[in-house]
């Protein structure tokens, strides 16, 4: 049976990858997560990751704040493509995250290399299914967390191009409230300078990855409550800001509405974010 979107999942949360090809049913996805491509991961963790840390010398703070076992949500600010490499490289345990299926669909040597890379760093392609891509991604994320994994997510939804911290969407909070998993906030610094948008190769400078203390959001209410999701999201974003030191933007990180229809749609769904 194809994964179905949870009716409580906010339809407008787009911090996760867009829908596309991947394992095509729940059993296949569970098996994918359980197997986890251990060979590729172990190669990356015990050879590539130490070499990268030696060369780039990232400053890692608070690794002990990440629970060694059990489900946990790692919620981070998002400045660069390299963020999805920096977090798994610096975390004390394997971190899973969803990635656009296009990263797994390339052909030829380049496509193979891309698949190997994303599999090695813990990425899982989004499952194709009915409903909106965001709901499918949230449902997929929920099952990954419930399987006892550490799962990374960017509440802002997409990279900040001006260095400010944007308003969080409620998907990460929904996942925390629905699964009961603690949230470990992460503050990334200088990853946007390390690999600027459009750059073909990284610069040699030190980035900082700081893991904050786990946050228990269960006292805020049920996942079905829009108020609880918003309160939980704001608490997560405050914790991220305390670590990253970024200026709050006070708005969502999205392009201006293209037309009147899009402007009205955003107004109608604003309370669900």
Automatic annotation (TrEMBL):
Query: Which InterPro entries does the entry mention?
Result: Plipid/glycerol_acylTrfase
- Identify the CDD domains for this entry: LPLAT_AGPAT-like
Q: Where is the composition biased (Low complexity)?
A: 1-10
Keyword field: Acyltransferase, Transferase
Q: Which residues form a coiled coil?
A: none
Keyword Repeat found: no
Q: Which residues cross the membrane?
A: none
Instruction: Give yes or no: UniProt keyword Translocase.
Output: no
Cite the residue spans of the region called Disordered.
1-28
Q: Name one GO molecular function term.
A: acyltransferase activity
> Signal peptide span per the entry?
none
Domain spans labelled Phospholipid/glycerol acyltransferase: 72-191
Per its record, how is this protein called by name? Lysophospholipid acyltransferase family protein
Q: Which organism was this protein described from?
A: Gryllotalpicola reticulitermitis
């Amino acid at each position: 049976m194809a994964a179905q979107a949870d009716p409580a999942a906010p339809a407008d949360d787009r911090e996760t990858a867009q829908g596309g090809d991947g394992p095509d049913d729940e059993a296949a996805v569970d098996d994918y997560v359980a197997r986890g491509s251990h060979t590729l991961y172990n190669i990356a963790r015990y050879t590539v990751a130490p070499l990268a840390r030696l060369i780039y010398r990232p400053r890692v703070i608070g690794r002990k704040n990440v629970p060694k076992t059990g489900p946990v949500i790692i919620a981070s600010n998002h400045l660069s493509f390299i963020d999805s490499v920096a977090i798994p490289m610096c975390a004390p345990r394997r971190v899973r995250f969803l990635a656009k299926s296009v990263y797994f669909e390339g052909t030829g040597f380049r496509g193979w290399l891309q698949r190997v890379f994303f599999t090695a760093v813990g990425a899982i392609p989004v499952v194709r299914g009915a409903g909106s891509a965001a709901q499918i991604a949230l449902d997929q994320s929920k099952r990954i967390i419930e399987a006892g994994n550490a799962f990374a997510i960017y509440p802002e939804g997409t990279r900040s191009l001006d260095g400010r911290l944007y308003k969080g969407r409620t998907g990460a909070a929904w996942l925390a409230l629905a699964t009961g998993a603690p949230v470990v906030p992460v503050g990334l610094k200088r990853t946007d300078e390390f690999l600027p948008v459009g750059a073909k190769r990284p610069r040699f400078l030190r980035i900082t990855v700081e893991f904050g203390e786990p946050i228990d959001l269960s006292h805020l209410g049920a996942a079905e409550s829009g108020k609880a999701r918003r309160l939980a999201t704001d608490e997560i974003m405050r914790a991220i800001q305390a670590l990253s030191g970024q200026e709050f933007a006070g708005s969502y990180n999205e392009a201006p509405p293209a037309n009147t229809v899009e402007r009205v749609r955003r107004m109608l769904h604003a309370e669900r974010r």
